[in-house]
């Protein structure tokens, strides 16, 4: 049977719709209008004789047949992209403009001090760094890759674990002198526990403590909730209350005695940092260069 190039083109358009989430965004990636993308998917459906997408005014959803087709075809599309990159000699040549959304804690404490090294390695690469919450639509924001804390929801996004850093419970010496030091996590009841908002769920993080095979959940109450980690740390330093923070973000404060770790005998609560990009398919050389660098500099931060 002769190869049908129109079938390959239609499957490629379908994959772009799945990975971008809409006809409009897929069109922007492919250089087509939204109606052109829709017609291409419709022609593919006619050619193979099944409906691939359920369309409504508000959303697109793969049918079971569409999901199966995408699952089987995506690896082959990646292989074609990789073959084209190899033929063009593009592998290892990071160049052009990269737009990266980087969690501010990682950006400030780990990435920024090492950026001169990255610039020296990749002189043909231009980098735009933006700071956004650890949630949101990468395609809509025009982001090539994001560095985000927290478990990543299942989606067409591709995620790569960079590190897991310890979660520490800390307070300032001034707060402890005034309010007393809790000896166990359960003693937090009655203390001013500073809350931090989970951007993915829209509510404060739960306070969880782990050691070996033991896990304790504590209902830590407090009047103050933050969405900015640096502001929360500054408030904790000022004696506002007790906070849960990421270890590598407060190492200097702990070493200087400005903050005190309260429960070092509960050392196993960690929080993951992921690199996330919009597609599960082969990433461009510029994205791979940035991801490899982030993996390299994150490694020493792993507890």
TrEMBL record:
Protein name: LysR family transcriptional regulator
Protein family (similarity comment): Belongs to the LysR transcriptional regulatory family.
Swiss-Prot/TrEMBL keywords: DNA-binding, Transcription, Transcription regulation
SUPFAM superfamilies: Periplasmic binding protein-like II (SSF53850), Winged helix' DNA-binding domain (SSF46785)
Residue ranges of domain HTH lysR-type in the record: 13-63
Domain of life, source organism: Bacteria
InterPro entries per UniProt: LysR-type_TF_proteobact-type, LysR_HTH_N, LysR_subst-bd, WH-like_DNA-bd_sf, WH_DNA-bd_sf
């Amino acid at each position: 049977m002769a190869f049908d190039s129109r079938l390959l083109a239609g499957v490629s358009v379908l994959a772009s719709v799945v990975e971008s989430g809409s006809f409009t965004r897929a069109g922007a990636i492919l250089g087509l209008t939204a109606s052109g993308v829709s017609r291409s998917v419709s022609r593919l459906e006619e050619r193979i004789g099944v409906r691939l997408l359920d369309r409504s005014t508000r959303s697109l959803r793969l049918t079971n047949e569409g999901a199966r087709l995408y699952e089987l075809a995506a690896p082959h599309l990646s292989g074609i992209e990789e073959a084209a990159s190899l033929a063009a000699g593009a592998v290892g040549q990071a160049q052009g403009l990269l737009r990266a959304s980087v969690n501010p804690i990682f950006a400030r404490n780990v990435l920024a001090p090492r950026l001169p090294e990255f610039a020296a390695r990749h002189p043909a690469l231009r980098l735009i760094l933006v700071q956004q919450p650890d949630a949101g639509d990468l395609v809509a924001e025009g982001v090539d890759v994001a560095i985000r804390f927290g478990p990543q929801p299942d989606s067409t996004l591709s995620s790569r674990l960079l590190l897991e850093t310890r979660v520490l419970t800390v307070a300032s010496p001034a707060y402890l002198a005034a309010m007393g030091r809790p000896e166990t996590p359960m003693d937090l009841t009655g203390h001013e526990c500073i809350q931090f908002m989970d951007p993915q769920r829209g509510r404060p993080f739960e306070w969880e403590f782990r050691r070996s095979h033991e896990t304790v959940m504590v209902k830590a109450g407090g009047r103050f909730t933050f969405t900015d980690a640096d502001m929360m740390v500054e408030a904790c330093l000022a004696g506002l209350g007790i906070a849960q923070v990421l270890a590598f973000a407060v190492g200097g404060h702990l070493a200087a005695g400005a903050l005190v770790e309260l429960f070092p005998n509960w050392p196993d609560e960690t929080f993951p940092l992921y690199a996330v990009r919009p597609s599960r398919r082969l990433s461009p050389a510029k994205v791979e260069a940035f991801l490899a660098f982030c993996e390299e500099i994150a490694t020493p931060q792993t507890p």
